Structure formats: structure tokens, C-alpha cells
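This part of the workshop introduces the protein records we will be handling. An example says more than a description, so a record of this kind follows:
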Amino acid sequence: MSEDNENVELKEERESFVPKTAKKEKKEKTAEEHFRNGMLALVGIIIALATLQLYFSVSEIISTWFEYQYRPIFRSLYYLFVVLAGIFVLNKFFLKKEKK
């Protein structure tokens, strides 16, 4: 009886110290997932192009609406806004901290 208890205790100790090396199984992507990823990439490219066009259009609007001596002030405020918005987007969506 005592040998059985010792065997059970040794078995429990071995199981508790076994390193976890199980690999996650990779699922093959379906056609629907490929389609979604492709559409996401396409929409992302369209949004990036529209953002560039908007960026240059606002610069031209500043040139049209404001006198030449005030243009550098408004352009610098606009560029500052663009930089702050870019930092916000990077921080919010790409530099997320993992929650424990």
C-alpha cells in the first residue's frame, strides 16, 4: 500500500514539472477568410490613398484661403495636427499593451 502511495506521489511530481511544449494547431484558412483579408487590404489601400489626397488638398486650401504671410502659420498648425493624430493612431491601435 505504501508503495502505491509513493508511486502516485512520484507520478504527480513528474506531471507537475513537465514543461509545456504543446504546439498550437494551425487551422487552414478558408476561402471566406482569404476573401475578408483581401477586402481588408484593398479597403486599407483605398483609405491610405484618400488620406494622402486629403493631406495635399488641405495644403492647397490653406494656400487659397489665407494670405501669403499667414500660410506658414496655418501649415505648421495643420502639420502639427497631422503628427498628433498619427501618434494617437499608432498608440491606440498598434502599440497596445497586453492586459494580464
